[in-house]
Amino acid sequence: IEGVQLAMCAAKLAHALALDGLAAAARAAADRLEKEYAGEKLTIGGESMPVSDFAARVRARLAGHAGAHAADALADVLCYAGNVRRTGAAFGAQPPAPGNVAWARTLFPSASRDSARGFFLDYEYPVLAAHALVEGDRVIVSALESLQALDRRTGLPVWKQTWDSDGLLRPKMFTGIPLSCPQSVQGRLYLRVLRGGQSALECCRMDNGSRVWSTAVIPELKGAVWLSDPVVAYGLAMAVFLLPLDMNVHGVAAVDAETGRFRWKTFLATGNTGIRNYYNYLGTTFQMGPPAVDGGIVYAATGMGSLSALNAFTGEAVWVSGYPRMGLANMEYA
User: Fold this and answer.
1) pTM of the predicted protein model
2) What pLDDT is stored for residue 19 in this prediction?
């Protein structure tokens, strides 16, 4: 194929299979790469290397991290709704009996939560929309304006990170009750944040909460408003976003989970965001749960009355299926 380096295609296939946790297929692809393209060189991240070195790197990944990557790609990483497949508890499983309260801690104030409540002054939301994550001896809790770790046994703070926000994902508009569902992978935390008026996905260190990377500096994602926390699988962090225009454009985008580099974005739907309330729209779908993944496919609600399936490695849409959107004749008489 003119202009295509077949050795690079074979190398990418071996790498993708390794990230997908398909050890046997990845090992076979690495063997084929080394045999069929012996003597050729690849340029990976600006580094030139023989194909034999890259094949060895794939084998080393399989030997040292096969369990971690299989868990990442499949169902063993504990996160929102049970795992990255969002399967939850087994059908018919009995919930554990609650015991005595061991500790209770007040969470940080949240400008976005207060702003959402401010649109309906006569209603107090009983729902806590921060879904805690338990990782070892830490309990991780995030909001659009904060990230903190508590000691699992005592509830005492281990570390905390806070920042200011404008409180709304879009100015002067109800953008739903903020939802936070962080995910941890190999000592890192992945979440959605609002710093000032800037919406972004971020990766932070588990040991102290310091920031590793942010999508705020990626030119290809400039202006994106993130509607969900990311799902992390196959070496990628993927989430739902919109571009705010006269008619909003909704889609899914992915960045490299380790470096934060842009990988792909796919536009899926155009229109008004949220549910119709007479002549206006309530931006309830600015707050969505993270996508689900399985078998190399990422499944994501668009926030505009449709569900999508995309190739997790390329972003290519496999299908988009619409469903009736909720609407209100008048909020006061709903």
Assistant:
1) 0.77
2) 72
